[in-house]
Amino acid sequence: MSNVQWTTEDFNVFQINGLDERMEALTTIVRPKFHTLGEIFSNYLSTKTGDEFFHHVAKHARRTVNPPKDSWVAFAPYKRGYKALPHFQIGLWNSHLFIVTAIIYEAPQKAEMAKRLLQNIDAFNQLSDDYIISGDHMSPDAIKLGEARSEKLETLIIRLRDVKKGELLVGRHIAADDAINLSSDEFMQFTKKTFDDLLLIYNIFVGK
Questions:
Q1: Could you report the per-residue pLDDT of 18-51, keeping only the tens digit for each?
Q2: Which of 12, 14, 11, 20 is nearest to 65 (CA)?
Q3: Which are the contacts of 198, defined by CB distance < 8 A and separation ≥ 6?
Q4: CA dihedral 46, 192, 25, 85 (to 10 degrees)
Q5: Are 130 and 194 in contact (CB under 8 A)?
Q6: Predicted confidence (pLDDT) at residue 1 exceeds the cutoff of 50
Q7: Rounded to an integer, what distance in angstroms lies between the CA atom of residue 85 and that of residue 158?
Q8: Nearest Cα to 29, choosing from 8, 45, 46?
Q9: N or C: which end of the chain has fewer CB within 10 A?
Q10: So what's the pLDDT on residue 61?
């Protein structure tokens, strides 16, 4: 499988009751697609950035009771992990697919990254209004950039700088019904375009 096409079954995994049952479905249905995307887009991002990117498929290994509500493949220029660095992700909730670049609370340099974002906040004007921002990678909720430019965007960046749990995700959401209607080629092109756009924000994250 060199390309990926999403199905209703992929999104319905997150409605399966029970940790073991949901994890088995994730492993057999969704995770192979994440590994395929991992190979494709780690190479793509390596070429685009000039840094070697590695992919990390979510294992959810620490879970002992509650089944995961989302899953993903992450991309970062570090082989052993991604959470401490700005990174990219492709992932699923039951309701939608997401393609984002993110700084989460584990990143030790996030205050410096936030300062760079505040100094370059006009860069967000180069993203179309359908892009989303979020301050919590554990929540499926997000705000359309078109609604957030005037105030919420700056508020989230300041929170990223000043609050230990502050995070920032920037990207696109595709509703599940729309995602399953995309051909493999359409999805791949959409993802490439999204990553291309997000490189502008990622480069501010990392100080390029």
A1: 999 999 999 999 999 999 999 999 999 999 999 9
A2: 20
A3: 88, 99, 100, 101, 170, 171
A4: 40
A5: no
A6: no
A7: 18
A8: 8
A9: N
A10: 77
What's the one-letter identity of residue 154?
E
Give the residue from 131, 132, 11 showing the smallest Cα distance to 71: 11
- The burial of 123, by beta-carbon neighbours within 10 Å (0-12 exposed, 13-18 middle, 19 or more buried), is given as middle
Find the farthest-apart pair of alpha carbons in the chain and give their distance in angstroms, rounded.
47
Tell me if 72 sits within 8 A of 87, measured CB to CB.
no
Structure tokens at 175: 């509703």
Overall residue count recorded for the chain in this entry:
208
Token readout for 11 is 């999104």
Distance of CA 121 to CAs 76, 118, 157, 166, 196, Å?
Answer: 23, 5, 9, 17, 18
Instruction: List strand residue ranges (DSSP E) for 42-150, in order.
Output: 54-57, 70-76, 87-93, 96-103, 132-134, 143-144
Please give the single-letter amino acid code of residue 94.
N
Residue 100, beta-bridge partner list? 89, 171
Q: Which amino acid is at 3?
A: N
Topology at the third CATH level for domain 8-206: BirA Bifunctional Protein; domain 2 (3.30.930)
Q: Which two tokens stand for residue 60?
A: 């959810």
- Percentage helix, strand, coil for the chain under 3-state DSSP, each rounded to 5: 45, 20, 35
- In sequence order, the β-bridge partners of residue 169 are 102, 134
Per residue in 89-133, pLDDT (tens digit) is: 999 999 999 999 999 999 999 999 999 999 999 999 999 999 999
